């Protein structure tokens, strides 16, 4: 089977609108969460989040087939990040053809369009609903817009599995490339659910942090004993996954090698994880087994970008799962939740965090878990508290766990061939 590499990364988050600004903020332990401005939050219990700001829509309006005015915000993010990812990989940005594909993840994409058009129908009547409503809010819109923007004519589809959406998308992309179906695949995830309905719904579930509206920078506290729920964010990360054969043939370079990705389902509860993490454990174990790696042999050279949602249920379960997989060696792992800086980007989370993991392996710098001050006795691993660290990590594990009982674990490795290795500034 083909080896698969990450050759391009594009990002837009509350930390910035490109890969470099995101990475520099992450290793500086900066937090992008702030008071929300886009929608009216005066009557909401949560008024903070991670908004994308100052998006250059010229990077979205790339040809006559796409228009930011006829896209939901989530689709705008996907095209914007895909544009950077293709350029970052040194690949064409037009008329790409059928040897490339698009597989995107989205959890609630289209929610802003739904809310706006529904309100318009109620207040102004059915005749004022936009004819572009369905093309804007359909779950596959983000992937379709990327295909249209860059002339990608291979397979094009969307995976939707809540917070694991982009993880499932990247697994699909990885396995498709292994089978030789494409030369490269534009994949990742996008989300734009910082709307009144989105916020109100998560608040009613008691999943969101409601005690930090006056202090957004310290609102996300993964693994800390004082954690009080997640803070939602929007944005996208798009990665170019590419076969080794195509990468070498064109003289490209890579950020990391994708070694495996595996998924399971808890069949336990619609929104609460199995507290024993049994199927989360199985997903991580299968990902390591498929990669040909033994947990005990790699613990001291592995970085884990945790799902780390800053909720009591998730953070405890994920800690339990890692300890079950790595046993007595779990303490050697270097674990962080970069959601402490980006917020929880729902369907885009896994893609953002796999991108971060690839940059961490290449740079030798591991980003921290910020706002970590009060240890939780049930969360007792090394969470890289508050400051980034230099470390010679050879492997990275990225975990994603979504409502519905979805578990995704991906394993990537540092590029071992100097002819293929990227540097963070190049």
SSE blueprint:
Layout: E1 4-12, H1 19-27, E2 34-35, E3 48-49, H2 73-89, E4 100-105, H3 111-124, H4 133-137, H5 141-150, E5 156-159, H6 165-178, E6 184-191, H7 196-204, E7 235-243, H8 244-249, E8 256-265, H9 278-291, H10 295-298, E9 302-305, H11 312-326, E10 334-336, H12 339-342, H13 349-363, E11 365-366, E12 389-390, E13 395-402, E14 406-413
Parallel strand pairs: 4-5, 4-6, 9-10, 9-13
Antiparallel strand pairs: 1-7, 1-8, 2-3, 6-7, 8-14, 11-12, 13-14
List the keywords.
single chain, 426 residues, Peroxisomal Thiolase, Chain A, domain 1, 2 domains, 10-stranded mixed β-sheet, two-stranded antiparallel sheet, 32% helix
The strand count comes to 14
Total of DSSP H or I helical runs spanning 4+ residues = 13
Average pLDDT: 97
Instruction: Kindly identify the CATH topology of the largest domain.
Output: Peroxisomal Thiolase, Chain A, domain 1
Q: Report the major sheet.
A: 10 strands, mixed
* CATH superfamily annotation of the largest domain: Thiolase/Chalcone synthase
CATH secondary-structure class of the largest domain:
Alpha Beta
Please give the oligomerization state of what you see: single chain
Q: How many domains is the backbone divided into? A: 2
């Amino acid at each position: 089977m083909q080896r698969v590499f990450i050759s391009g990364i594009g990002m837009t988050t509350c930390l910035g609108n490109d890969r470099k600004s995101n990475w520099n903020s992450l290793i500086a332990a900066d937090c992008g969460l702030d008071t929300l401005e886009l929608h009216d939050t005066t009557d909401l219990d949560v008024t903070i989040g991670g908004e994308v700001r100052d998006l250059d829509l010229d990077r979205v309006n790339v040809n006559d087939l796409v228009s930011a005015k006829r896209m939901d915000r989530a689709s705008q993010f996907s095209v914007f990040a895909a544009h950077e990812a293709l350029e970052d990989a040194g690949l064409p940005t037009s008329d790409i053809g059928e040897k490339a594909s698009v597989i995107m993840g989205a959890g609630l994409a289209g929610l802003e369009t739904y809310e706006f058009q529904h309100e318009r129908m109620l207040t102004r009547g059915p005749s004022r609903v936009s004819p572009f409503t369905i093309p804007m809010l359909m779950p596959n819109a983000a992937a379709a817009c990327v295909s249209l923007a860059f002339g990608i004519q291979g397979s094009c589809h969307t995976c939707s599995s809540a917070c694991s959406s982009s993880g499932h998308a990247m697994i699909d992309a990885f396995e498709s490339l292994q089978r030789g179906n494409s030369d490269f695949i534009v994949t990742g995830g996008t989300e734009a659910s910082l709307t009144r309905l989105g916020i109100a719904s998560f608040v009613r579930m008691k999943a969101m942090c409601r005690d930090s509206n006056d202090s957004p920078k310290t609102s996300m506290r993964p693994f800390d004993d004082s954690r009080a729920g997640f803070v939602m964010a929007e944005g996208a990360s798009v990665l170019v996954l590419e076969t080794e054969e195509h990468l070498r043939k064109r003289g490209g370079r890579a950020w990391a090698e994708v070694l495996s990705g595996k998924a399971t389902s808890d069949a336990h509860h619609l929104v609460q994880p199995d507290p024993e993490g049994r199927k989360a454990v199985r997903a991580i174990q299968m990902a390591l087994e498929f990669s040909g790696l033994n947990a005990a042999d790699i613990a001291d050279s592995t970085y884990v970008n945790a799902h780390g949602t800053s909720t009591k249920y998730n953070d405890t379960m994920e800690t339990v799962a890692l300890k079950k997989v790595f046993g007595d060696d779990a303490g050697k792992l270097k674990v962080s939740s970069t959601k402490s800086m980006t917020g929880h980007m729902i369907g885009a989370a896994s893609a953002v965090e796999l991108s971060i993991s690839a940059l961490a392996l290449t740079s030798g710098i591991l980003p921290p878990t910020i706002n970590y001050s009060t240890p939780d006795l049930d969360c007792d691993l090394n969470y890289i508290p508050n400051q980034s660290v230099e470390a010679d990590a050879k492997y990275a594990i990225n975990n994603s766990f979504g409502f519905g009982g979805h578990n995704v674990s991906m394993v990537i490795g540092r590029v071992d061939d100097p002819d293929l290795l990227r540097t963070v500034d190049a």
